Amino acid sequence: MKLNFRKFIIIIPTYNEKKNVYLILKKIKRYIKFKHDILFVDDNSNDGTIEVLKKIKSKHISYIIRPKKMGIGSAHKFGIKKGYKFKYKFIITMDCDGTHNPKYINYMIKKLDNFDIVITNRFIKKDSLKDWNIFRRLITFIRHVFVCLIFDTNLDSSGAFRVYNCQKIKLIDILKAKSDGYSFFTESTITLNKKYKIGQIPILLPKRYSGRSKMRLTDLIVGFLNIFFLFFKKN
Length: 235
Known about the structure:
About 35% of the residues lie in helices and about 15% in strands. The chain is α/β, with parallel strands linked by helices. It has a seven-stranded mixed beta sheet, with helices on both faces.
């Protein structure tokens, strides 16, 4: 990883996203005009993603290849720790699959005037998930309603598209979320919401550019179990 001492770093975990790397970089370049660095955290992809990353020639784009697939939550924590280590003031996290449009980032950063963390919400706007299949929309909605009810919140806690103000948030508080899988996002949101101000913006979430979702049925089951664990831990 190169150290450039810019204010902003964008963390993008990858696993088998060969066809999407250049597409997301193109969109970032289109919408993000302020100076920033980008760090890809790859979990040893086997589809050619690593070769694509190695071909990128920019002093402001770095990549780290981890030895194996270690989980999306683990990749976020890894990247966030690097952001703090190199003293970035703001960390942006997003997916590589095209579902997270960089056009929202400018608005998210503006909201940091009033919040410590800004996340995205897929349930404020009607039909924000219209491109998804009915089963995934239903499961996602049920999960969202369930979390909101038991934790008395209106936050869309399971999204990975976020901006952290590192000048206000302590790294140790982010790392209190122990999950290395998809549950990291809900766990960290619920934990951080106790101490910090979390803002959110409405977002439309389209289908991924190409490839298949990495989420499995077991991830959904583990996610619901972790919600129960968090609830009983809180009480």
